[in-house]
């Protein structure tokens, strides 16, 4: 009978591959994936597994950010860890934490905010106020020791309910949390890309023991765990019924403006104990009639709009896609990258009343070469998803 760890490693591989299958790193691993997974298994069993070299680069959309990406084999370990410990922490999270949670993502968060507005205003009959807060450099400010202690403390309490090797997971947590991801990492795009990025938004300038890399699945889970006690402080202790959070963005709705003002100082005091600070230039307290910009949407009484930046970003992406078909040799990774990008935007827009916008972009903005490779899912008039034409599915196309 196969070792459960080996079975779980294969599942973690399939999970990691689902999102990164067409990256060069993933394709290299996939060539001999069984052999590579068995090698990972042996390293975990013998205690010799070591984290590989990360790749550091800068993205500029929607804003300039530092990304430090782990190699694919390490991403498999991230999924393994996530699959083991997320079920333990998920029941501890409040309903209104919307990041990296199945069934409680951005669509759920937008609906909840619309519900909060209706409920707090007695179906728009009463005046109400919206407070929006943001953290300054959240991922770069997370304290490794505090994070590790919070996770380990809960796992030790649940040790009788753990279906995995607890000692192995504790060791993986120690390696992943305390790893120096900037040491010996591969820098892509040149150091000039970092020009203009504040020091508090880069791991390269962080003191030891502080900060997590943006982009890793484990960092997303850890960020939820780190702020979970604050979520409960707001919801349970201060009884802020209409409170929601997405990563480092908080929105609180109330008919009592003074109570919201008081919460700013209460939040500042609590967060200081976690080594976190409110962004001084991103504190908004305004009439609820103006709505709130949250989760890619403008949520107002009786209406939800797509944020202008989202529409502009989609137009820019389409322009880039048209340029790719004009200037580049097309291969399978490029096609799947385009497919993922187009459908990501369509999925976001389809949550709102954007039929004519989606039709306009798909029929009038994409050039004819695009439609040689793709078609609309569900036939004409269904502007929610595009798929690769059958003749190109599985085709080599010069990988």
UniProtKB/TrEMBL annotation:
The source's superkingdom equals Bacteria
The family database entries (Pfam families) matched by this protein are listed as:
RVT_1 (PF00078)
InterPro entries attached to this UniProt entry: DNA/RNA_pol_sf, GrpII_Intron_Splice-Mob/Def, RT_dom
- Sequence ranges assigned to domain Reverse transcriptase in this UniProt record: 1-299
Give the PANTHER family listed for this entry.
NUCLEAR INTRON MATURASE 1, MITOCHONDRIAL-RELATED, PROTEIN YKFC
Q: Mind telling me what this protein is named?
A: Reverse transcriptase domain-containing protein
Q: What is the lineage of its organism?
A: Bacteria, Candidatus Falkowiibacteriota
């Amino acid at each position: 009978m196969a070792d459960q760890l080996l079975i779980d490693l294969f599942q973690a591989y399939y999970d990691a591959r689902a999102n990164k299958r067409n990256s060069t790193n993933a394709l290299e691993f996939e060539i001999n994936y069984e052999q590579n997974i068995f090698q990972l298994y042996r390293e975990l069993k013998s205690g010799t597994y070591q984290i590989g070299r990360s790749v550091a680069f800068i993205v500029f959309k929607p804003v300039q950010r530092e990304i430090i990406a782990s190699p694919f084999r390490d991403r498999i370990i991230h999924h393994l860890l996530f699959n083991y410990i997320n079920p333990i922490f998920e029941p501890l999270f409040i309903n209104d934490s919307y990041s990296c949670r199945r069934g409680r993502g951005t669509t759920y968060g937008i609906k909840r905010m619309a519900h909060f507005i209706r409920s707090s205003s007695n179906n728009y009959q009463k005046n109400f106020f919206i407070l929006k807060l943001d953290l300054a450099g959240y991922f770069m400010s997370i304290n490794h020791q505090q994070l590790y202690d919070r996770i380990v403390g809960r796992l030790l309490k649940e040790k009788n309910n753990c279906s995995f090797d607890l000692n192995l997971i504790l060791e993986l947590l120690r390696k992943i949390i305390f790893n120096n991801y900037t040491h010996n990492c591969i820098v892509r795009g040149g150091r000039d890309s970092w020009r203009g990025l504040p020091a508090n938004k880069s791991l390269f300038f962080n003191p030891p023991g502080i900060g997590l890399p943006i982009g890793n699945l484990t960092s997303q889970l850890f960020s939820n765990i780190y702020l979970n006690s604050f979520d409960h402080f707001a919801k349970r202790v201060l009884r802020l019924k209409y409170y929601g959070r997405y990563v480092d963005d908080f929105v609180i709705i109330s008919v009592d403006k003074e109570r919201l003002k008081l919460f700013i100082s209460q939040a500042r005091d609590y967060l200081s104990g976690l080594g976190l600070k409110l962004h001084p230039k991103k504190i908004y307290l305004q009439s609820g009639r103006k709505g709130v910009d949250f989760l890619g949407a403008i949520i107002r009484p009786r209406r939800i709009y797509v944020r202008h930046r989202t529409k502009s970003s989609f137009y820019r992406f389409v322009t880039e896609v048209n340029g790719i078909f004009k200037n580049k040799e097309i291969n399978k990774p490029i096609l799947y990258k385009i497919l993922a990008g187009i459908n990501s935007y369509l999925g976001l827009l389809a949550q709102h009343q954007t039929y004519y916008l989606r039709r306009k972009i798909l029929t009038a903005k994409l050039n004819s070469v695009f439609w040689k490779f793709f078609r609309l899912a569900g036939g004409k008039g269904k502007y929610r998803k595009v798929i690769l034409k059958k003749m190109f599915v599985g085709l080599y196309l010069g990988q």
